[in-house]
Every structure is written in structure tokens, then in C-alpha cells.
Amino acid sequence: MRLELSPAQLAFRQSVDEFAREVVAPRASAIDETGQFPFDVMRAAGACGLCGVTIPKPWGGAGLDYVSYALAIEAVARVSATVAVALSVTNSLVAELIAHAGRAPQKEQWLRPLAKGEAIGAFALSEPEAGTDAANQKTRAVRRGNGYRITGRKVWVANADAASVVIVFACTRPGLRGQGVTAFLVPMDARGITRVARADSLGVRGLGCMDLELDVQAGDDQVFGPVDQGFRAAMWALQGGRVAIASQALGIGEAAIGEAVMFAKERHAFGRPIASYQAIHRARGGAHADVEGRRCEGAPGANHPRGVDGEACGVRSRPQGRRQGHEDPGVGWLPPRLGGRAPAARRARDGDLPGDL
Fold first, then answer.
1. Which residue of 200, 203, 244, 265 could cross-link 350, Cys pair, CB 3.0 to 4.6 Å?
2. Total Cβ atoms within 10 A of residue 129
3. Nearest to residue 43, comparing CAs of 134, 115, 137, 141?
């Protein structure tokens, strides 16, 4: 397999690195401390093509491949896991799904604003009894007139605090699980949507995660894809999301290693920096090998995001951010719940969550 990046991919990575360094990094600590959604950063990301990396240019996107998208998420995650996840939701779970399965009027209304960062997207699949068992949808969509009445509760909806549109999944044929779920494209200002704030999270703070209480009317023109086939659409979107979250984990891992190296050079023991001791050399070398190994394992997934390779990519790489974040000497080798607001502690807290979002 060819693992070298093309000149275009290298140039794109350099531009995203610059954006992350100059725009995202100065805001990262404040986003974590306040827990406020970074509207300004997302608008700037949209202007750079990062809200629609794989969306075709005629629809306002950058028109790039999935390897470029993975590189972008990794680069942003090195400085802010929160912004990386917000981008992955808008890209993988909303914009790409609309481009893939949306009707022409739905694309006209939402795809270009999403790709340009003028609108933020949310993805409402999880419920109190439908997390890992996502087919166990209790939110109901009942036929009513020229549309559907959707009632239920969605939980942990990332970007919900800032979203302009949300893809809602609801049961239309009870008892059939994934064969009776329909997707709906619902504006967040629709009557009958109530945002409910959640308790503060351990990491990836400022993501705008909220619960949604629904009692909303959706017209037939808001049905997204075939009726009763919404669960397939959700799984298609999540396959691309796994590649993005794996890239996020790599970015967190790289950042944690960087923090550890700086700390090891500054911290002295027995008259010299601890970076000069063999035990630290071994830990640093092992961490680098782990990250590079995960990157090589994830490469097939970035090249084939919606196949077996894409699913395996997420499974293999997600633990990496968690491991490197916890083992950063700058945190003192403590569990993330004991960490503070220092950058190293933030890496540990953020690294504990990628597999669960």
C-alpha cells in the first residue's frame, strides 16, 4: 500500500497546520475553561474549507479526498479536540450524508451553508435507551396529515447548542428496529424542539452537547432518504465518522507526546533533565512507535472510509489518545479526573472520550 502523501495533500496539511496554530490554538484553553461553543473558530474553519472537506466544490466544499480530511482532523485535534469533533460532526455526520442521500431541494437549502461554515449541523441518533444499541429507537414519528409528528428525547447531541439543522432519527414502524427507522432533516428553530443543557463533561468541553426534547411536525419534504431506511443512512454516516474520530485520537496522542517531551526537558532530577534518562527515552520512543503504528493501521480506513477498513480504523486508533494522554508526565501519571486545566491535563481528559462520542 502507498502511504506517501501527494503534493496536494502535503500542501493542504500545511495550510491546516497553519490554521490550527494561528486560529484554533489561541482559543483552545478558553474553550475548555468556559465550555462555550466556538462559533468564531467554526466560521473561520468554514472559510478555509474545513466544514466541507470532501464536499464537491460546486456545493461550496473543498472537494478533497478522505485522506486529506483525516489529516485536517488530526491537525486540529493536536490543539483542540473540541474543534476537531465539532468539525467531524458537521462533515461526516451531516454534510456528507446530505450530499450522499439528500434530495435536490434539501441539498440546495443546507449543503452549501454547511460546507461554508455558515450553518452548523447536528446528528440526533442517541437516546437514553439507544446508545450502542442504536437501532432501539424510542423516538416516534407518526403519520399526521402531509407529514409526521415526531415525539421523543435525544441525548448527547453534539453541536446542538449552535446547530442550524439537525438530522433526527425516529421509529416509524415499531418492532422492526433498524428496518423501521426514518431520518428527518429538521431546522433547529422549528416549533417543538427544546434544547436541554447537560451536566458538564469530563473532556471535549465546549462541544455544545445538549439533549433535545421533541414534539415537532415534519413535512414530507423533510423526510431524509427512503422512509424506514434511516438507520442505514445513520450507519453510513458513522462509518466516515469513525475515521475522523480515529484521526482525532492520533492528534491528541501526538499533542500529549509533545507536552511530555517539553516537560521532560524542563524537569530536573539528580542534577539533570529527566529527558536524559534511559527510562524516559524508552517511554518516549514507545509512544512515538505506537502513534505511528496506529497511523499506518488507519491509512486503509482513510482510503476506504466506508468499508471494513474504515470501521477497523476507528476501533484501532481511538484508544491511542486515551493512552498517551494518561501517560503524559506533565499530568503526573494521574487519572484525568484528577487533572486540572493545564494543557497536559486537557489532553488526558479529552483523550478519555473519543471512543464514546
1. 203
2. 11
3. 115
> Of 101, 113, 111, which is closest to residue 182 (Cα–Cα)?
101
Residue type, 304: H
| Residue pLDDT, tens place only, 4-24 | 899 999 999 999 999 999 999
Would you identify the CATH topology of the domain 121-232? Butyryl-CoA Dehydrogenase, subunit A; domain 2 (2.40.110)
Yes or no: say if 52 and 60 are a contact pair by the CB < 8 Å rule.
yes
CATH of domain 234-356: 1.20.140.10
* All residues at 6 or more sequence positions from 91 whose CB lies less than 8 Å from its CB, including other chains: 51, 52, 53, 54, 55, 69, 240, 244
Which three three-digit cell numbers place residue 308?
471494513
Tell me how far apart the alpha carbons of residues 308 and 316 are, in angstroms, rounded to a whole number: 12
Q: For residue range 74-110, list pLDDT tens digits in order.
A: 999 999 999 999 999 999 999 999 999 999 999 999 9
CA count, 13 A, side-chain hemisphere, 178: 10
Kindly state the average pLDDT of the residues 147-153.
97
Terminal CA-CA length for the chain: 30
Q: Give the DSSP letter of residue 195.
A: E
Each domain of the chain, given as residue ranges in start order, spans 7-115, 121-232, 234-356
C-alpha gyration radius of the chain: 21
CATH code for residues 7-115: 1.10.540.10
DSSP readout, 153-194?
EEEEETTTTT-SEEEEEEESSTT-GGGGEEEEEEETTSTTEE
Task: Find out whether 196 and 212 touch, Cβ atoms under 8 Å.
Answer: yes
C-alpha cell at 77: 485535534
Closest CA to 234 of 134, 307, 106: 134
**pTM of the model as a whole:** 0.86
Q: How far apart are CA 23 and CA 12, in angstroms?
A: 16
Task: Report the alpha-carbon distance of residue 240 to residue 245 in Å, rounded.
Answer: 9
Q: Kindly state the helix (H) or strand (E) to which residue 75 belongs, with its residue range.
A: helix 66-77
The whole-number pLDDT of residue 349 equals 72
How would residue 336 be classed by pLDDT, with cut points 50, 70 and 90? very low
| Neighbour-count burial for 201-217, b at 16+ CB within 10 Å, e otherwise | bebbbbbbbbbbebebb
